[in-house]
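I am writing to request your help with a piece of structural work I have in hand. A protein sequence and the structure tokens that stand for its backbone fold form the material at issue. Please examine both parts with care and let me know of anything in them that strikes you as inconsistent. The record follows directly beneath this note.
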Amino acid sequence: DKDKDSLREKYEALQVELMAVQLKYQREVERLERENKELRKTLLLKAQTSPTAKMRKVKKSLIDMYSEVLDELCDYDSSYDTQDHLPRVVVVGDQSSGKTSVLEMIAQARIFPRGAGEMMTRAPVMVTLSEGPYHIAQFKDSTREFDLTNEEDLSELRMEVELRMRNSVSGGRTVSHDVISMTVRGPGLQRMVLVDLPGIISTVTTDMASNTREAIQAISEQHMSNPNAIILCVQDGSVDAERSNVTQLAATMDPSGKRTIFVLTKVDLAEQNLANPDRIKKILSGRLFPMKALGYFAVVTGRGNSNETIADIRDYEEQFFTNSKLFRSGGVVSSHQCTTRNLSFAVSECFWKMVRDTVEQQADAFKATRFNLETEWKNNFPRMRELDRDELFEKARGEVLDEVVNMSLVSPKYWEDALSKKLWDKTNTYVFENIYLPAAQSDNSGTFNTIADIKLKQWADMGLPRKCVEVGWETLQEEFRKLMDKSKTSRDHDDIFDNLKAAVVDEAIKRHKWEDKASDVLRVIQLNALEDRSVSDKQQWDAACKFLEESVKEKMVANEATLKEMIGPSSSEQWLYWRTPTDEQRRRAAVRSELDKLLKATYNHKNTLTFDEVTTTRKNVQTAGYDVDNEFIRQTWHPVYRRHFLRKSLAKAYDSRKSFYAYHQGLEGELGVDCNDIVLFWRIQQMIKITANALRQQVMNREARRMEREIKAVLEECGCDRERKATLLVGRRVQLAEELKRVRQIQEKLEEFIHALNNEK
């Protein structure tokens, strides 16, 4: 027993001596490293500020080149497809196990937000560690550099990380698959790429989405399933081993342990809790958990105080392993398995070994992918250039703007003809029903002109200018759409742009508003035009006659269609086409027959029926065997009288063709000629002509340019909105061009990286 006690004392003394020697040499190595850091920093700064530095292209470090490849892959394949088998260091662990603190110790900066027991890592964070003269951090999509030696910058960086994580979760989710990418540079940092994943949980709390546990599991498996990813499995040493979730997951994803490094954190708390040395020894020798690993490490990541600096934590860690009875005696752990510094060296070494062993295979895989995509393009689109979505958008932008230029080439006559036609189409019903028909009920010329003047002025004061502006807006819209549709018939038309062009035009038209003062300008010129009743020459008279005749004929066609629908097929149509009128149509036909007799007896009948006339008509129809009410008779009267009135108007128009001399000499009364209808329609025709001219000037001088500005603004917005472009430019051709572009970029960056890797000593 005395011999055994003596041997144990010697063993412990040797163990203490060995630890002291190792710490002595470790301090010496750290001193030399600090001197080396200062020298490297001086050299890097000198290289950056030398006169020739601006004249030559800055050579990227290996890790920066590798990180660019990974960033390209993140954008190209956000679902982490099996094609992406490039190595990363995937940091996994249970929630609050200290995995983020381990990553911060490796990065030598407290760059992540902290929370007391709250889930803080809500999305994967890819951190690229690289050497540089200054200790700085930068996001992939930002130019700002955060000074990691400045506490204010560190605080802003943590807030930015937290903000990006919260922005990445939407739709009620708690965690996200979207990768946040950042680079940390500094003197003496081990070059590698780490991905910090959300901590694995056992229970979903009430403030989490119901599928949070499964979502975290899926994210972890997604990143760990990469056969070349190094799994940094972080286990909390202060809790019972049986409560571990991460070790079982690591054992499932890497059964052989060829790419797993195990890290036991919070071993200082384990000692405080009087942990069994044999149990910790089993953990660090790989005999307790059902998993295998390349190496096992014990680390201390601070006292749990968020205000501690990296230097404070490193000193505390060194002090703990120097004085710890648990780790100093009993051979619990070897000295090279302690401290985050040794862990960082080991992880970096494994990472670069995996990179050198696998990167060539990945380059070959992308070569094969590129060949397949290029073959598909040659077979399906042999005579087309490979234009990605951005290039296609620029081409479509040019075509749309070309059509805007073509709109400025439309002749003034074409604009005026289109506007005149549209104006009359929009106003003819109002003219006939509210102006011409009431004025025509008068018994003499004076009353006709008085009613017409009053009605025309009311029209010009109230709704006419606004209606004309609407006509101008609609005509501008229709003509631009016609130009766009006309371009589809050209030989060079590419239908892949149709959705984009239609969306841009629709949005621009929706935004375009006519100038507010346009209505006021039109009101003045329309009032002046409508007040003029002097037809100066025979040519204008003939044009007014033609205008009246054509307008009346159009109305007659429309009225006949309405009347035909009311009374049903004629006798000949019933025999020839086997059509049978309905009961209502038979009653309408009987009423129409009686009303026609009434109008024939009273040629200059007013546009309304008296009560006696309605009663007489109803009794006559009842005698014919049809029972109708007064309202039914008045409904039928409307189109019947309109037909009678239009026929009278057309006859007047024919008679007035040769009445210009009588009108010009003021002999209408003496010769029994009625020219009021022609003069009224001449006034309306002149108003339409002057309005069309004014609208044409507004279109060509102002509104077309304002429309062009709206189109350019919409195109600019679409150009900056990738999601919108992705919905408007679709199809296999676009998708294939996009994939080809990305695969070429990735392959080129991979080849550049491999070349630099092979040249590195």
About this structure: Strands lie at 89-93, 125-131, 136-139, 146-147, 180-186, 192-196, 230-236, 260-265, 295-298. The domain at 88-338 is CATH 3.40.50.300 (Rossmann fold).
